[in-house]
Design brief:
10 strands; globular; alpha/beta; Rossmann fold; 11 helices; binds adenosine-5'-triphosphate; Isopropylmalate Dehydrogenase
Length: 357
């Protein structure tokens, strides 16, 4: 994107804690525009379970068409366990959005800001620092909309892996590794599933174009072990949709839980930035959700725009988060601290306003 002064953001607060964490994120972005020469125009759209109850559609086609016109989409969270399709299946408009906008590259950065946030002993801040790249348009999720009869005796889900889908995913992962510490770990189950053996073969082909990036191949079960045993050894991990879904929650637990795990779903044209967490109905409406994951997702949005000023804005957010979280007293309830959602948001916004640009 060329350097510009105004960025238009479609804001989708969604359900549960979504509106709370989005409110704090907009505060942070407001602080950013007071520090660097750029400004934001925010337009809010209603999506999710709340929108389904209003209009019968959690992601209306007209809304989807409109949000495509923006420079990025910032999403809180969507879905509530008690709001379901008449078939009884929970609605997952966030997955529909990924598929409809072809957002194949799910980025989940995992970073330890504060030793007290991790259940692991002996890790200092910054020592756990890796990114999971999750394929987000095919894999084991591709059967998710299939219907089956009430009296079915068997239901089969397919792991769909295509050459084109894998090639674009691996290229994005190798490029990311090149911008980081140049190590890429493939997570698969190539020893058992033919689709995963194929996935690995495509990975091996692409790796030939990136001789400067060290590669490692691990089965998903072993990856779960290594993520806990030696998380410091990872730089970038790439995997299929369902495995990525599972290991990103595991990885979030290493750095403080879902409230600390940002994410971005990137395609060739559009991108959605949202926390890795869902609507957290167990804590919704209590003012205790941790907004850090969403605020860091907004920093990823600024980075994705890839202009000098936007990158400066992203650095401001990240160093403000770092500064606030380096004080062990600055913890929300999920991290064992006393801060409310608003107090955490206020502290990060204040740190953005006072941090060095
Ligand atoms: P989904 O299926 O949509 O990913 P989920 O039902 O798996 O969602 P989440 O909504 O991500 O679950 O919540 C998982 C756990 O993490 C819950 O106990 C929730 O309270 C907690 N949690 C999630 N987000 C936050 C947050 N921002 N702050 C504090 N706790 C959170």
């Amino acid at each position: 994107m060329t350097d510009r002064s105004t960025y238009r953001v479609a804001v989708l607060p969604g359900d549960g804690i979504g509106p709370d964490v989005i409110r704090e994120t907009l505060k942070a972005l407001d602080a950013v525009q007071s520090r660097v020469p750029l400004s934001f125009e925010f337009a809010e759209f209603s999506v999710g379970a709340g929108e389904y109850l209003r209009s019968g559609d959690p992601l209306p086609e007209a809304t989807l068409e409109r949000v495509k016109e923006y420079d990025a989409i910032l999403l809180g969270s969507m879905g509530l366990p008690n709001v379901r399709w008449p078939t009884g299946v929970e609605m997952t408009p966030q997955i529909d959005l990924r598929e409809k906008l072809d957002l194949y590259c799910g980025l989940r950065p995992i970073y330890l800001f504060q030793p007290q946030h991790t259940p692991l002993k002996r890790y200092v801040a910054g020592e756990i620092d890796f990114v999971i790249v999750r394929e987000s348009t095919e894999g084991l999720f591709s059967s998710r909309l299939q219907k089956y009869a009430d009296d079915a005796d068997e239901v089969v889900d397919n792991m769909r892996v295509t050459r084109a889908g894998s090639l674009r995913l691996f290229r994005a992962a190798f490029e990311l590794a090149r911008r980081r510490r140049r190590k890429l770990t493939l997570v698969d189950k190539a020893n058992v599933l033919p689709s995963m053996a194929f996935f690995r073969r495509v990975f091996d082909q692409v790796s030939g174009d990136y001789p400067d990036v060290e590669t490692e191949r691990v089965y998903v079960d072993a990856a779960s072990l290594y993520l806990v045993e030696r998380p410091h050894s990872f730089d970038v991990l790439v995997t299929e949709n369902m495995f990525g879904d599972i290991i990103s929650d595991l990885a979030a637990a290493l750095v403080g839980g879902m409230g600390m795990a940002p994410s971005a779903d990137i395609g060739d044209r559009w991108a959605v930035f949202q926390p890795s967490h869902g609507s957290a109905p167990d804590i919704a409406g209590r003012g205790i959700a941790n907004p850090v994951a969403t605020i860091l997702s907004a920093a990823m949005m600024l980075e994705w725009w890839d202009t000098e000023t936007a990158r400066r804005g992203a650095r401001l957010i990240r160093s403000a988060a770092q500064q606030v979280l380096s004080d062990p007293a600055n913890r929300t309830r999920d991290l064992g601290g006393p801060l409310s959602t608003t107090e955490m948001g206020d502290r990060i916004a204040a740190a953005i306003r006072s941090a060095e640009a």
